[in-house]
Specification:
- The chain contains eleven helices and no strands.
- With about 300 residues, the protein is mainly α.
- Helix 1 packs across helix 3.
- It is rod-shaped.
- The N and C termini lie far apart (about 140 Å).
- The N terminus and C terminus are likely disordered.
Amino acid sequence: MTTELTTFDYGQLDGKTADFLRTKERNMREIVGRAYTELGRELKEAQDALAGSRYDGVFVKWIESLGYSTQQVYRLMQRYAALTNCENGEQRQLLEDLPVSLSYEIAAPSAEKSEPKRQAKAAVLNGDITTLKEYRELVAKLGTEEKARKEAEARADAAAETNHALMDTLESLKSVPPRIEVQREVYADPTLADRLARYEARFGDIDGEVTERITNHTEVDGAASAFSDDVQTLLLRYAHLTTYRSTFTGLSDESYDEYRTSLDALKDFVNGMERVMSATPKGKAVIIDINEYKAN
């Protein structure tokens, strides 16, 4: 007796004969189904009776002595368990009418180990699948779809994680003050150069030698007093220029340049004095006769 549905063309027969053979096929399948169900029940009851440490291993030895394989026996018991767990009599009848190989497949524990197999089993119990071939094809199709879905979800998760990481990086960058690199280039000021040229034409080389030099400490002290008097005279005479901006309103370009040239010369003089005094400790001034120095 085959355990799979066969493909037989009932159309080659007249209607009465075809209906007769269909009835016989259905009856034989019911007989086979009930037989497998009864076998599963008997085996399950025997296993339960032998369960326990006292008879450990006896059940397997017993079924092998009857000519059954362990795989075949456990399939029969799993099928019987599936029948007893059916939700209703209609579902139980559907399961008993299935090809035995298909009922074995959906009754095995592995039928619940993956979502594709669970969905294919549900399709069998709903009457949508009636052969083992259809069941396996549906499992393969659902498995491929599940794999593609998981890969798409993994890519989406990876993209989301990357996006979160980028957002975190952007947020952290917002708290960092921007770095501004300033490139400085020095340009010659033609106006300043012109003022310097006119100053030197009027007063002589700004770096040139003076015509008279102080040659002793007494002259140094006297020069300091004279220098102080001259500075005070200068301030008294021109201090008002630093107070009233209106004084320079309408000033000609030539007069403005004269003021600037003189101020630049005064700044150079003050800076030079600062350098000399800073480099010479108090009371230890060294007087050098430049003419004597040159002669030597």
